[in-house]
Amino acid sequence: MTGSEKLNLIVALSMPSILAQITSVLMFYIDASMVGSLGAEASASIGIVEPATWLFGSLVSACSMGFYVQAAHFIGAKDFAQARRVMQHGYIFGLAVALILMTVGIVIASPLPRLLGGGADIQGDATTYFLILSMAAPIHLIENLSSQMLKVSGDMRHPSVIAVAMCFADVFFNFLFIFPTREITLLALHIKVFGFGLGVAGAAIGTLLAYLFACVPLLYYAVFKSKILAWRLSKGPFRWNAEYITSAVKLGAPMALQYLLMNGAQIVSTMIVAPLGNFAIAANSFAVTAESLCYMPGYGIGDAATTLVGQSVGARRKDLCKSFAHMTVILGMIVMAFMGLLMYIFAPEMIGILSPVPEIRALGTQVLRIEAFAEPFFAASIVAYSVCIGAGDTAVPSFINLGSMWFVRLTLAAALAPVYGLPGVWFAMATELTVRGILFLIRLLRGKWMRKIEDPIKTTE
After folding, report:
1. CB–CB of 306/72 below 8 Å?
2. Which runs of consecutive H residues, i.e. helices, occur in 274-317?
3. Does 398 fall in a domain?
4. Tens-digit pLDDT profile for residues 42-64
5. What pLDDT, in 10s, does the model give residues 60-80?
6. Which residues on neighbouring strands pair with residue 189, listed in sequence order?
7. Cβ-proximal residues to 119 (8 Å cutoff; 6+ apart), any chain
8. What average pLDDT does range 336-353 have in this prediction?
9. Does residue 457 carry a pLDDT above 70?
10. For residue 168, is it within any domain?
């Protein structure tokens, strides 16, 4: 392949995924905006438990990853039968893990906001929000695994279209469940709109139903319609193969540990922010949501990198692995540098959409502009990490993420927060993301992430 052909392929795979990532973030953006209209306490009640909800979602993603990386390697080796078997094992094992996570979430939902430092005025709503989203774990597992399996098979279109539809569904469900029955004016017409008026709980219910809305068609396309993965293409009865589970655990365990400690670090970071008050908690949560609009293109390019590198590993094409890795990382850094510039310029508007409270807007604008300078290196860490996942190299990247988070970000944040408040916490974050990006660039250039390309891949007739 020529350089232009590789670039066209990267862009063709990235664009649908970028669209899907952006619409996914818009879903959370809309959630935050709707809840933000209810006031600072409602926003803080979500913000205090948000890192814990990310942790559960990340553990579900780590479980999925152990299976879709194997599938990518088998697809690259043209062994579609084993790719389908891996997928079947992924649903069974993944649902078992998701049910365990759901049970843990139900148990810890009540004491969690208090343990994280939330005040009595937000603990009730925070508990309800976390409890409802914990019950979404099995649905999220099926949605995530189905989407990722389709992507590594080369089908970016269906997951992307469904992600956009999920965003619109989330808006509908939020309007229905968050707000009470009310009268709105549309084109000089006064229309009565029904609503349940559940507030923060309504936001959680809306998100759960949006996941369910996406889960069903994704499962249908992955299991019944995919030209590579559809189960009807397999011959013979299903047979349990513990080796797939062992391989998935070897791939996913370092990632699960990383997510556990990374999101644990986010929880500690929230505990550092909590004493700064409800305005700081809400501004921190809104700024994270606003910033995610800027780094989602990096994750979209990362999806393309995982697919292309994973299939190149399966085909034993070391030259393609290296070329796709370098091109996707460079493209990600360019795109996110531009997004960082936009974030710096439009920070007041980005936060203004989310909250009408002046104190929250001022703090949110300040921290977003601090973070804007770290976006190119954040891109390097996102895409290079995705490259490593595609190559089955998960241990060292996990240590890089953990080390930078715990020894750079949290150390600096704990030292700066009492003196500089929330801006100090975000300066620590920007510094850590820059360090992490540099470490991943070093990992990428040294090439040790490609060592597994030499490993033999078992195939079946």
Report:
1. yes
2. 278-314
3. yes
4. 888 888 888 888 888 888 888 99
5. 888 998 899 899 889 989 999
6. 186
7. 278
8. 92
9. no
10. yes
pTM: 0.73
Give the residue from 34, 72, 272, 75 showing the smallest Cα distance to 174: 34
- Residue 318: other Cβ atoms inside 10 A: 14
Residue among 46, 62, 61 nearest 112 (CA): 46
- For 225, which DSSP code? I
What value does the mean pLDDT take over residues 190-215?
Answer: 91
Residue 263 has which token pair?
């999101």
**Residue 165 CB partners (closer than 8 Å, separation 6+):** 213, 214
Helix, strand, coil share of the chain (percent; to 5): 85, 5, 15
Query: Where in the sequence is the domain holding 150, given as residue range(s)?
Result: 3-454
Measured N-to-C along each axis, helices 278-314 and 137-152 cross at an angle, to the nearest 10 degrees, of: 40
Residue 200 burial by Cβ neighbours in a 10 Å radius (0-12, 13-18, 19+)? buried
Q: If you search the block for the tokens 């929250």, which residue do you land on?
A: 360
Q: Tokens standing for 431?
A: 């510094």
Residues in contact with 75: Cβ distance below 8 Å, sequence separation at least 6, in sequence order: 83, 152, 153, 154, 228, 310, 311, 314
* pLDDT tens, residue by residue, 360-395: 999 999 999 999 999 999 999 999 999 998 888 888
Are the CB atoms for 144 and 211 separated by under 8 Å?
no
Query: Could you identify the residue written with the tokens 């399966």?
Result: 314
Number of domain units in the chain: 1
CA dihedral of 446, 406, 48, 426, whole degrees rounded to 10? -70
Residue owning tokens 């996914």: 24
3-state secondary structure 80-97: HHHHHHHHHHHHHHHHHH
The single-letter DSSP state of residue 277 is -
Which helix (H) or strand (E) is 196 found in, with range? strand 189-196
What is the spatial distance between Cα 79 and Cα 458, in angstroms, rounded to a whole number? Answer: 9
Name which of 165, 180, 161, 172 is nearest 206 in CA terms. 172
How confident is the model over 156-196, as pLDDT tens digits? 889 888 988 888 898 899 889 999 998 877 777 788 888 99
- Per-residue tokens: 356: 């009408």
429, 439, 455 from 132: Cα distances, Å: 29, 38, 43
Would you say residue 460 has pLDDT above 60? no
Residue 461 domain-assigned (yes or no): no
Whether 303 is covered by a domain: the verdict is yes
* N residues, the chain: 461
